[in-house]
């Protein structure tokens, strides 16, 4: 396979996953902003989505404050923001158009229809009250793309690079989301705030489609350390860090038979830390420190994949 083709497929998948992740972050932030809680002002509510996307500098350069309207526009519709939903889906469509022959016709039709419908929605305008419906639409179209990919694409190297892009991006977002929200939603000791705290933690779980999974696994009230365990080391939770690397490691074992052994080493090292790690050890070193270190390691893996297989610099 040409590196150029692999590059387009890999980034097409990453951008679609990124758009879905941004929709999840906006959705949970908006829902949590509707819960009455005097402990958090508007800035405290709406700054974390920008932190998760690592776009603080770009946001503060173009917007006057962390209001709901500003953050929603920046994260969803601002074409100057490369992490916004519209930018990510536009980049995904351009990458898909460049390699139409490397994917099934159904995949291309799904991506193209997604982009055309998005443009129509933008022309109609996006009200703040419609943000939940818009985010649900983005998530459903991302699910449709993955379903079409799984159901129609030949299991060759093209398929492997699509999966690779999806899980590298997903692992990065889950770590950023948990890190940002855990710092905001530390366990409360005031009994009067306990009910509000429950709804906020449940919203966080719903943002990664993990609310029902939490209930099945723990059969208990929502507790922050159990949420962290579910999203970090549980390998049966699809969006957990461990689950992402359960998918990444075997894909790289197949791709790294002749080159890219550093990719395999990095993925194996990250996978081993999640597979054999214990939450007690993670909390003893600090969850924030662990997640920041994971994000750096995951970014290093992405950079090495780019260098070894794609159109990246040596």
From TrEMBL:
Source domain of life: Bacteria
PANTHER family the record matches: BLR5612 PROTEIN, SLL1039 PROTEIN
InterPro entries: ATP-dep_Glu-Cys_Ligase-2, DUF403
Pfam family membership, one: Alpha-E
Stretches assigned to the DUF403 domain: 1-310
Protein name: Alpha-E domain-containing protein
């Amino acid at each position: 396979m040409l590196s150029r083709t692999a590059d387009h497929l890999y980034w097409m998948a990453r951008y679609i996953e990124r758009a879905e992740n941004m929709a999840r972050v906006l959705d949970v932030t908006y829902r949590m902003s509707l819960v009455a809680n005097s402990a958090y002002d508007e800035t405290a509510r709406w700054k974390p989505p920008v932190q998760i996307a690592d776009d603080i500098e770009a946001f503060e350069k173009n917007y006057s404050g962390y209001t709901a309207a500003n953050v929603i526009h920046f994260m969803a519709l601002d074409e100057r923001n490369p992490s916004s939903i519209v930018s990510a889906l536009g980049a995904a469509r351009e990458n898909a158009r460049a390699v139409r022959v490397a994917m099934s016709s159904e995949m291309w039709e799904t991506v193209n229809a997604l982009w055309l419908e998005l443009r129509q929605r933008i022309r109609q305008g996006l009200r703040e009250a419609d943000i939940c419906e818009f985010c649900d639409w983005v998530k459903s179209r991302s699910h449709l793309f993955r379903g079409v990919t799984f159901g129609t694409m030949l299991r060759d190297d093209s398929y492997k690079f699509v999966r690779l892009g999806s899980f590298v991006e997903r692992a990065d977002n889950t770590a950023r989301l948990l890190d940002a929200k855990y710092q905001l939603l530390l366990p409360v000791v005031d009994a009067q705030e306990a009910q509000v705290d429950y709804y906020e933690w449940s919203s966080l779980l719903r943002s990664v489609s993990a609310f029902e999974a939490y209930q099945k696994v723990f059969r208990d009230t929502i507790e922050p350390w159990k949420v962290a365990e579910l999203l970090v080391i549980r390998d049966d939770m699809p969006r957990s860090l461990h689950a992402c690397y359960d998918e990444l490691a075997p894909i790289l074992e197949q791709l790294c038979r002749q080159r890219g052994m550093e990719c395999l080493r990095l993925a194996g090292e990250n996978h081993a830390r999640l597979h054999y790690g214990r939450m007690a050890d993670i909390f003893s070193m600090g969850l924030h420190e662990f997640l920041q270190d994971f994000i750096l390691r995951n970014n290093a893996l992405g950079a090495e994949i780019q260098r070894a297989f794609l159109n990246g610099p040596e």
